[in-house]
Amino acid sequence: MSTQRIALCAVYGAIAVIALVATWSQNLAYFHTGPGDFFAAFGAFLSDTKVTPAARSITVDIGLFFLAAAVFMVIEARKHKVAFVWAYIIGGTAIAISVTFPLFLIARELRLAQPDATHLRVVDIVPLAAFAALILYLTYWIDVA
Fold it and tell me: CA 43 to CA 47: how far, in whole Å?
């Protein structure tokens, strides 16, 4: 692997670590009663995304970026045979897309030298469509409802 690719992976890794610390230093504030209170904490978190126009704007922005990133990730994963692409997407919803997207980009860089492309399969298209529907619903719920 070239020095440029190694440096790029290091940058992606640094972004992922910073994103993990920055997002979860805030997310943990919702778990003040303990980790067993996950659903109540998640509900409070989701509700707070609608509090101000700025919160709604940034939430919708990240959600729609996440959708575009998910499509990109699945296509690139199939093209370059990056394993576990859905783990990155599910991890993006559970951890933060700002953490898992750079990790996916590292995995992609590691596989980029292999030119064998494949096509998307139904097992990719159906979950992507469902994810799109979820993000669009959340966008409506946060922005309009």
Answer: 6
